Fold this protein.
Amino acid sequence: MQRTRQLLAGLAIGGLALATGACGSPVTDTSNAADSTRTARPTAGTDQTGAKAGDPPMPKPPATTAGPLTRKNLPAADRLGAGFKPYTEPDQPEEGFVSNGQPVRQRDAVEVTASIVPLGCPGVERLSPLPVPANALEQTYRAPGRQAAVALVLDYRSEEAAARLVDGLADMLARCKQPSAKAKLPTARTVALVKRPDAGTLLDSRHDVGPGATPGWWDETVVRDGRRVGLAIVQRGTREAKLDHGALADYLRTLITR
């Protein structure tokens, strides 16, 4: 279950949650990243301000905007698949997260860039780090059966940095290959089927193989337009139809330029 959250967290808040055991490249901070949106929840013994005597005041829950980015830059739930609805992440003290009561939240730019790095792919840590955006906004979704999806819009300070994000992620996913039949895997490994229709579009479908492999697939769509990048990753069962990557890519591109 933890690995499932890591993969999806590649994007979401409880990890879609950042994992302590993630295998990946470091990130390069090329901007003044926003303050972290993961904060400790008040516990017994705190006063009404949410802080113990002598402690600094508790940070506020994450905003619902990030710089120029708003919810209008993120996809409607029904465009990600049948049954999907916006999902509000609850408070998660064990993750150090305070909810803002909304499905849309500002993400810490450094943290969310680290979460995009694909897990369990040999050699990823030796590649160039992914660039960090100036602003990052996220929305989470759920469908019946607890299927999950996450969408991000990332705002960079230059087109060159935004392009490096897409190129760098493509290089990382190229390392997520099917292991040989003779390979003795100690843990689960991610396998990605990748397509690059053009320089500004990256499409992939991922699944796990090996010990402890999580069933199901994750379909990811990444698009760039100018200084912005839109990204959506959608969970599906092993017998479910694959996401229409092309249609979703076209839709995301209209959103991120608003």
